[in-house]
Amino acid sequence: MRILHLVGQREDNGGILSVIRSLQEIGPLSRYTHRVWVHKSYRETRLPPLSYRYSPFIRGDSPRHFSILIKGMLAFLSLRRLLARELFHVLHAHTRGSLVTALMVARFLQRPILFTNHAYARRKWLYQKAAANKQMTTVLLTPNMARHYGLEVDPPRVNLIFSGCSDAFLDKPLTEKQWNPALGETLKLAGLGTIVRWKNWYLILQALADLPEALRSRVEFSLWGPEQDDPDSKCYAKELREFINENGLEKTAYLRGCTNQPEKALRSAHFVTVASENEPCSVSLMEALALGVPALVSASGGNIDIVREGETGVVFDSGNKESLRAQITSILEGRQAMLPPPQIRETIREWAASEMTSKYNQLYDRMADLYRHQVR
């Protein structure tokens, strides 16, 4: 069975490509082959390698909606030519840009399409329309995402399948770095993710800057993540650096850059930090919990489905620097007692990539049967 993932990425980062790598690694190669449709400028920088198809038009996302529409239409024409040359039993769209193309495939080619929604969009009507399309099968990542879009989970048309945590993390040694305020050590926070505005890294810096000096000197925040190759990402990284310098955070906050050793970065921290509003389903968050590292997260998105407040993590009001500052203070003052690492790990087993892959493979079998029935 040949599966084509419509992604449109320009860079090899983010959870979508991690999900596809898990599907490729765990699924039986004799039964499924995965190909990924990306922008022609894409360059692979991570392992394991994937097999790609390229287009000058397909794109993952853009802040300009008109651009998404035009590129999506041109990408449809490009995809139609690809499908004339090469057989794919399942078309699996993942991004907002590819959703436009997927809707056109459903409308004009009358082909079954699988769409996984990896985002909390403000324009909910487009995703509701996709879920109502008879040619479309929709996947949402968490119960909170279903509530956000006002969609009823009704398999096999509307499904819940999370972005899975690598099974390997569940077999690795547990963290030995547990926070104990009585030891007088520095509280180490780690953030993993690309430097883009919606990740809300700025909020963490603001909360740290507002801490009294006596508390701030006991905290170290490390941000591990690349700048994306677009003007706004570079501008945002510059703003973060300027804020650090202007507020005397040079010994508190560090932009560590890209890392190909996420496990090492997670093990260096007492808490992994996710500040973005409506983070869909953070793989790095799940990996941290799998290692027994608790979390400091915003009360939004998939965080509220993954983290057990007061047990596996500390939760602050989304987008609220005062709430985040107060929770950092409560950790420093020893008012937060998390479960021990082995129990933290057990809460994430149901989110394993093998479970995710099994659920997707069932959908792939169904989608392939629909396609074969159509072409008879």
Task: Tell me about this structure.
By secondary structure, the chain is an alpha/beta fold. The chain folds into two domains: about 1-165 and about 350-375, Rossmann fold, CATH 3.40.50.2000; about 170-350, Rossmann fold (3-Layer(aba) Sandwich), CATH 3.40.50.2000. The protein is built from 14 helices and 13 strands. The chain has helices at about 15-25, 65-85, 95-110, 125-130, 145-150, 200-210, 215, 230-245, 260-265, 285-290, 305, 320-330, 340-345, 355-375, and strands at about 1-5, 35-40, 50-55, 90-95, 115, 135-140, 160, 185-190, 220-225, 255, 270-275, 295-300, 315. The strands form two sheets. It has a seven-stranded parallel beta sheet with strand order 3-2-1-4-5-6-7, sandwiched between helices. A six-stranded parallel beta sheet has the order 10-9-8-11-12-13, sandwiched between helices. α1 packs across α14 (about 355-375), α2 packs across α3 (about 95-110) and α6 crosses α12. The radius of gyration is 21 Å and the shape is globular. The two termini are about 15 Å apart. About 45% of the residues are buried.
